[in-house]
Amino acid sequence: MLPESCVANIISFTSPADVFSSTAVSSVFRLAGDSDFVWEKFLPSDYKSLISQSTDHYQNFSSKKEIYRCFCDSVLIDNTRKLFKINKFSGKISYILSARDISITSSDQASYWSWSNVSDSRFLESAELITTDRLEINGKIQTGVLSPNTRYRAYLILKVTKQAFGLDLVPAETWIKSKNGKIVKNTTYLCCLDEKKQQMKRLLYGNREERMAMTVDAICGDGKRREPKGRDDGWMEIELGEFETRQGEDDEVSMSLTEVKGYQLKGGIVIDGIEVRPKSLN
């Protein structure tokens, strides 16, 4: 018996998941749950700017709920260099920085890297490593564009080609750093373990692999080797680290993966970008 405006005000203090489910209660809840008043509460404050930056900025939205659903499907922004997405049920914000939007050492030199359109990439271009002995990938993001009071994790999105070489001899180092000086470091291999290849390399390199592996530990706390994990979209990801956002703060977070200590020639990985998403969505 509550007025629709009163119901809308109440459910605007809940979550998108609650609003979606509440529409089954009654026609009043359904109308309230479709109102612009409710869905504007769940949209980021700069949603108009995001729409103007997106490749779909010409689209005429009939409601704020429609804009929200569009963001849930993800939109390309900043001249297609970034992908912005909202989780449908939590309303938490995620970003993917394209390979063009991050720093890859020597990526402008054709003898080291090549740029091309990969069929299942979300961006116009991805970077493929031809060969190098110094791999340095860095990305930055402002916490002000993310959801506040949320723990985030950053991931390097990549593929390993059939012609890949030199990726599993020396672990790479990963780290995340914020302006307040806090640094979180770790290590990982750039490809998954292949027992047959490992046996062949032991014959070719002797004890060199063991000596290099001893310099940096790439084993998780549970004793498992750190390496890329499969994603639902067909790519793989390497966790770079995690950080936390706070209400009212706009900190700059730097994310990095490097392998520069082993001087080991390596090649055959395709970089699509760096994803920053809430830890609870893993």
How does this structure look, described?
The chain is α+β, with helices and mostly antiparallel strands and 282 residues long. It has helices at 4-11, 16-22, 27-33, 36-42, 47-53, 64-73, 195-205, 208-215; strands at 75-77, 82-86, 93-98, 103-104, 113-116, 126-129, 135-142, 151-165, 172-178, 183-188, 229-230, 236-244, 252-259, 267-278. Helix 1 (4-11) packs across helix 3 (27-33). It is elongated and about 70 Å long.
Features:
Jelly Rolls, alpha+beta, five-stranded antiparallel beta sheet, 282 residues, 2 domains
SSE map:
Elements: H1 4-11, H2 16-22, H3 27-33, H4 36-42, H5 47-53, H6 64-73, E1 75-77, E2 82-86, E3 93-98, E4 103-104, E5 113-116, E6 126-129, E7 135-142, E8 151-165, E9 172-178, E10 183-188, H7 195-205, H8 208-215, E11 229-230, E12 236-244, E13 252-259, E14 267-278
Antiparallel strand pairs: 1-2, 2-3, 3-14, 4-7, 5-6, 6-14, 7-13, 8-12, 8-14, 9-10, 9-13, 11-12
So, CATH architecture of the largest domain?
A: Sandwich
Number of E strands? 14
Main beta sheet strand tally, sense and closure? 9 strands, antiparallel
Distance between the termini: 40 Å
Number of domains: 2
Spell out the CATH superfamily of the largest domain.
Galactose-binding domain-like
CATH domain fold name of the largest domain: Jelly Rolls
Q: What is the helix tally? A: 8
Which CATH class of the largest domain? Mainly Beta
Low-confidence stretches: 211-216
Instruction: List the helices and strands in order.
Output: HHHHHHEEEEEEEEEEHHEEEE
Global geometry: elongated
Amount of helix: 10-25%
Q: Return the structural class.
A: alpha+beta
Write down the overall mean pLDDT.
87
User: Rg to the nearest angstrom?
Assistant: 22 Å
Q: Name the beta content range.
A: 25-35%
